[in-house]
């Protein structure tokens, strides 16, 4: 079914349901796509949740939700009907290859094939790379948000990070196991299995230059990896977007992990084994994971975005106090930077940015790209 037909169905469903009444007069301004979005946005927060979308168009929710954060912004909604890419995960997903590794755990006691997708640069494919050479390429993982898919998350990252081997793993039950998600899968083991598979199938992938980029629940998984990896894997760059650590992962001035992935009991005090270049980015108007910390639905209580960055700065050698909220450096487009010198930790605060960053999204993409590329040189 074409986008045009789907859009007409969506707008027709609005007319039939009688939402075009006086209290929603503003929803009648602009394009049909704009009117549909504003009429569905019942709580007027500028984003669409799955329950707000009528039953018919709801079937397209995951496709429209380009960054796979479980929310649809106006730009994502319009892009779905105009073929215009938007955000870091928009665009074509051609040219990748599907792989699987098999795992067993309590939810899948007979075994389950867990999938991930790989996009190799044009000069480096699994078929052509039959032996190791000096033509090595860095490896960048991209992790989807809760409810998302690896397929969609691949997005435009091959274009933004040209020359990288891009790896997009799929979370079990479309989530990563952080707190009380549906998945109780051993995700850190999954990550290590993927590394082994890449080493075998892509011998020219440079596993000494690994970058991690994750959105929302995928950012939470990055924090798990940084805390729980055993030190044999070197992570060069980590970019958690719109999420902070949960309080179970960091409290009493210490990091914690679980002895059993099947529950939410972080019972083991631990010390992260490695250090990396860390860039955290969060919007002050985020309604999904609050910038100032607090509850995210029924699942977990988060630290504030700035405390999360400071905790990692201390872990990586910073000895000063937490940077004051008013001591950041203002960049363009309402982005404020907090840089912990000597610890390789930077936090970016996006003023009035929601869970999808809004107007600052393009600049955020460029900052992420530049951060990753700069630290690999």
Q: Any descriptors?
A:
17 strands; three-stranded antiparallel β-sheet; 28% helix; Rossmann fold; single chain; Recoverin, domain 1; ten-stranded mixed β-sheet
List the helices and strands and how they pair.
Layout: H1 3-17, H2 32-40, E1 47-48, H3 55-58, H4 61-64, E2 72-73, H5 74-82, E3 96-105, E4 108-119, E5 137-143, H6 150-154, H7 157-160, E6 165-169, H8 187-201, E7 205-215, H9 217-228, E8 235-241, E9 250-251, E10 254-257, E11 268-270, E12 277-283, E13 294-296, E14 300-302, H10 305-315, E15 329-331, E16 335-340, E17 345-350, H11 361-376
Parallel strand pairs: 5-6, 5-7, 7-8, 8-12, 12-17
Antiparallel strand pairs: 1-2, 3-4, 4-6, 9-10, 10-11, 13-14, 15-16, 16-17
| Secondary-structure arrangement, i.e. CATH architecture of the largest domain | 3-Layer(aba) Sandwich
Strand line-up in the sheet with most strands: 3-4-6-5-7-8-12-17-16-15
Helix content: 25-40%
- Rg over CA atoms, rounded to whole Å, is 21 Å
Low-confidence stretches: 1-30, 83-93
What distance separates the N and C termini?
46 Å
């Amino acid at each position: 079914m074409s986008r045009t037909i789907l859009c007409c169905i969506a707008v027709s469903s609005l007319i039939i349901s009688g939402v075009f009444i006086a209290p929603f007069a503003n929803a009648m301004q602009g394009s049909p796509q704009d009117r549909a979005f504003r009429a569905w946005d019942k709580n007027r927060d500028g984003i669409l949740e799955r329950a707000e979308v009528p039953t018919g168009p709801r079937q397209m929710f995951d496709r429209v939700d380009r960054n796979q954060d479980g929310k649809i912004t106006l730009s994502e909604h319009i892009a779905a009907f105009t073929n215009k890419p938007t955000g870091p995960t928009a665009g074509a997903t051609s040219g990748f290859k599907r792989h699987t590794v098999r795992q067993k755990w309590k939810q899948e006691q007979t075994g389950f094939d867990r999938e991930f997708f790989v996009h190799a640069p044009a000069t480096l494919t699994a078929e052509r790379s039959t032996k190791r050479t000096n033509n090595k390429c860095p490896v960048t993982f991209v992790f989807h948000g809760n409810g998302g898919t690896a397929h969609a998350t691949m997005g435009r990252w091959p274009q933004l990070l040209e020359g990288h081997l891009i790896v997009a793993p799929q979370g079990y039950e479309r989530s990563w196991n952080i707190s009380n998600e549906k998945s109780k899968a051993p995700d850190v083991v999954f990550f290590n299995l993927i590394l082994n598979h890449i080493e075998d199938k892509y011998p020219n992938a440079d596993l000494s230059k690994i970058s991690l980029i994750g959105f929302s629940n995928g950012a939470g998984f990055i924090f798990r990896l940084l805390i729980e990896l055993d030190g044999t894997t070197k992570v060069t760059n980590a970019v958690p977007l719109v999420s902070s650590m949960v309080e179970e992962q960091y409290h009493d001035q210490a990091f914690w992990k679980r002895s059993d992935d099947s529950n939410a009991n972080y019972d083991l005090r631990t010390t992260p084994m490695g250090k990396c270049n860390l860039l955290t980015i969060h919007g002050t108007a985020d309604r999904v994971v609050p910038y100032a910390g607090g509850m995210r639905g029924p699942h977990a209580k988060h630290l504030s975005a700035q405390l999360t960055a400071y905790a990692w700065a201390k872990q990586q050698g910073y000895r000063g106090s937490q940077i004051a909220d008013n001591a950041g450096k203002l960049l363009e487009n309402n982005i404020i930077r907090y840089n912990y010198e000597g610890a390789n930790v930077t936090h970016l605060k996006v003023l009035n940015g929601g869970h999808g960053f809004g107007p600052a999204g393009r600049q955020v993409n460029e900052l992420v790209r530049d951060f990753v590329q700069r630290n690999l040189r």
